[in-house]
Specification:
Strand order of the largest sheet: 3-2-1-4-5-6
Number of strands: 6
Structural class: alpha/beta
Order of helices and strands: EHEHEHEHEHEHHH
Helix content: 40-55%
Length: about 190
Amino acid sequence: LSVLPATKNIYDAVFLGRLVPSKGIYDIAPIWRRVCDHLPGARLAIVGSGSEMVIRKLTDIFLENDLQNNIDLLGYLSSQEIYAMLKCARAFIFPSHEEGFGIAIVEAMACGTPVLAWNLPVYKGLFEGGIISVPQGDFAVFTELLLPLLSCETKQNSELISQGHRLAKNYSWSKVSQKMQSWLLGISSESK
């Protein structure tokens, strides 16, 4: 397993983020191993950069779990490449252990890709109804909820995608900058 250049491959799922332990990168192998037990050809793209030590450790973990043909470490990609990949993927997995917001989640929702993430408290107010939240550390449930997304289009996918699109629109640059300007100037939303 090596860090691969961007290709025109279509992936079943994508992870996007810094390759650091707090992003849940070591949770990926137990999740994806379970996925591959049900869908042996399932492919996951991991987009993001990390230290040589972390990449080596991830590579070793993927080899130990016999995932070398199912996971590609793609490193840094351009925004255009990332969005094209997200639009083609059936799911976005984000097993981060701590977040202040989750911009990668918004990017996936904006691309129409269903999101699965650990149920961090910050997501409840931001993305409720737009992502599938999984009890943190429950790899079996994560996989159980991920498999239907990877297998076929379902009504749940359509509803989840629609809600995700609606939520993502709340975080456009213009809306966020307007909210920031109002906050900085002390203008409440009621006075507008």
